[in-house]
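thought: user wants a sequence for this fold. calling inverse folding tool.
action: design(structure=
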C-alpha cells in the first residue's frame, strides 16, 4: 500500500473510532477536527478498500502528516486506555499487513540527545557526538554507567517521572553516571509511529554505546528501558553487538510495551539474547505492557495482572515498574523486594514455591533464569 493511501486509510479509521466513542468520552480534536469534520463525514462513507481511489479523487480532504499525528494523538488521549490500546494494535496490524512499517520519518541522529544528569546540571550532546559526552569532565569513566531510555511523551524539557525517580535513586548511590536518552519528538507522536522507529533509534544509540565501551569496562554499562524504551533498548543491544563485536552485559526492561509488539507481529522487540542478561519487570500485563516472558528472567509483582495494588488505572500500573525498580536502587534497599521462582502468584501464596528468594531490580543476579513472583504493597515503600 502506498504511504499516501495508508495515511488516508489510517485517518478514516481514527475518525470512525472517534465518532463511535465520542458520546462516551471527552474527545476533542481542537482546530483540526473543526477544520476537517465536514469533509471526514463524506470520507467515512467510503470503505477502506477504496483507499487508492480516494487518494486520487479527494486530495483536498487529506490532512498534512503533522495534522494527522496531532489529531490521532488527541483522539486516543481522550479514550479509555483499554480502547486506545485496541485502536493502536489495529493501526499496527493494518500498517504491518500493508508493509507500511518503514518509518515515515527516519530519525536524524543529530536531533537525538544523550543527557548526563549529575544532580546539579543536565549535560546534553547529540547521539552523533556521543564521544564528546563520554570525554566530558563531568562524566567519570571510573564509575558505572546507567543509560535510561523511555518512550512516548518523554522530553527532557518536561517532567518525566521515570527519569526523575531513577536519576534521584542512582545519584543517592554516588557511584554511577546516569545518562538519559532524550528521544524527544521521535517518540512524542502517535504510538504506532513511535514503535516503527525503534530499530532506527536503537541503531544510533547502540553505535554511541560502542564508543563508550572503548573508554570504560564493558561490564560497567547497564541499559534500562521503560515501555517503548525497552524495545529501543533491545534494538540498541543488537546494534551494540554489531559495532562492538560483543554483547551489552545487561538490559533491564521495565514493563516493555505491548501495543505494536504483540506475538505474531513482525515488529521486533526486546528479547533474551539482546544482552548477556535481560531481566524484565511486568506490571501492566496484556494492556500497555507485555504479558508473556521475553527475558532471561521475568518478574511478575502480584501476579500476571493488569492492575497493581493501589492503582486505579493502567497507566499507574505501567509506571509501577520503574517505581519498584527505583526503590531497589537506593543504598540499603537493594534487597527490599525479593521474588521466588514459581508458576503463579497463587502458588507463591500457598507456599509451594521452595526456591531461594532473589532480589528484584538493581541487585538481581545475572545468572538466574525463569519466571519469578513476589508481593508488594500498594504504596511506597512497596516491600510487602
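)
observation: tool returned 384 residues.
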Amino acid at each position: 500500500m502506498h504511504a499516501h493511501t495508508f495515511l488516508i486509510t489510517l485517518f478514516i479509521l481514527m475518525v470512525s473510532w472517534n465518532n463511535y466513542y465520542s458520546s462516551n468520552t471527552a474527545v476533542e480534536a481542537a482546530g483540526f477536527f473543526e477544520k476537517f469534520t465536514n469533509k471526514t463525514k463524506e470520507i467515512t462513507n467510503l470503505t477502506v478498500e477504496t483507499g487508492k481511489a480516494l487518494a486520487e479523487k479527494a486530495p483536498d480532504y487529506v490532512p498534512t502528516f503533522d495534522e494527522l499525528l496531532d489529531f490521532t494523538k488527541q483522539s486516543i488521549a481522550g479514550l479509555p486506555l483499554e480502547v486506545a490500546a485496541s485502536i493502536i494494535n489495529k493501526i499496527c496490524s493494518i500498517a504491518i499487513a500493508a508493509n507500511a512499517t518503514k518509518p515515515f520519518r527516519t530519525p536524524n541522529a543529530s536531533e537525538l540527545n544523550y543527557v548526563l544528569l549529575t544532580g546539579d546540571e543536565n549535560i546534553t550532546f547529540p547521539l552523533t557526538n556521543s564521544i564528546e559526552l563520554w570525554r566530558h569532565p563531568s562524566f567519570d569513566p571510573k564509575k558505572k554507567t546507567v543509560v535510561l531510555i523511555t518512550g512516548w511523551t518523554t522530553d527532557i524539557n518536561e517532567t518525566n517521572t521515570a527519569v526523575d525517580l531513577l536519576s534521584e535513586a542512582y545519584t543517592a548511590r554516588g557511584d554511577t553516571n546516569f545518562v538519559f536518552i532524550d528521544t524527544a519528538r521521535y517518540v512524542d507522536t502517535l504510538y504506532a509511529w513511535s514503535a516503527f522507529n525503534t530499530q532506527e533509534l536503537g541503531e544510533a544509540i547502540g553505535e554511541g554505546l560502542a564508543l563508550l565501551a572503548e573508554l570504560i569496562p564493558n561490564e560497567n554499562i547497564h541499559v534500562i528501558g521503560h515501555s517503548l524504551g525497552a524495545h529501543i533498548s533491545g534494538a540498541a543491544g543488537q546494534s551494540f553487538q554489531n559495532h562492538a563485536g560483543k554483547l551489552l552485559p545487561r538490559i533491564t526492561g521495565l514493563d516493555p510495551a505491548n501495543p505494536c509488539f504483540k506475538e505474531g507481529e513482525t515488529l521486533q522487540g526486546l528479547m533474551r539474547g539482546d544482552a548477556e542478561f535481560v531481566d524484565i519487570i511486568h506490571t501492566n500485563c496484556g494492556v500497555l505492557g507485555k504479558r508473556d516472558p521475553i527475558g532471561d528472567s521475568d518478574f511478575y509483582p502480584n501476579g500476571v495482572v493488569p492492575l497493581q495494588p493501589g492503582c486505579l488505572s493502567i497507566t499507574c500500573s505501567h509506571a509501577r515498574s520503574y517505581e519498584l525498580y527505583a526503590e531497589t536502587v537506593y543504598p540499603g534497599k537493594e534487597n527490599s523486594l525479593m521474588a521466588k521462582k514459581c508458576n503463579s502468584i497463587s502458588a507463591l501464596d500457598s507456599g509451594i514455591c521452595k526456591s531461594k528468594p532473589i532480589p528484584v531490580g538493581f541487585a538481581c543476579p545475572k545468572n538466574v533464569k525463569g519466571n519469578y513472583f513476589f508481593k508488594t504493597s500498594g504504596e511506597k515503600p512497596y516491600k510487602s
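thought: summarizing for user.
answer: Here is the designed sequence. Residues 3-21 form the longest helix (19 residues).
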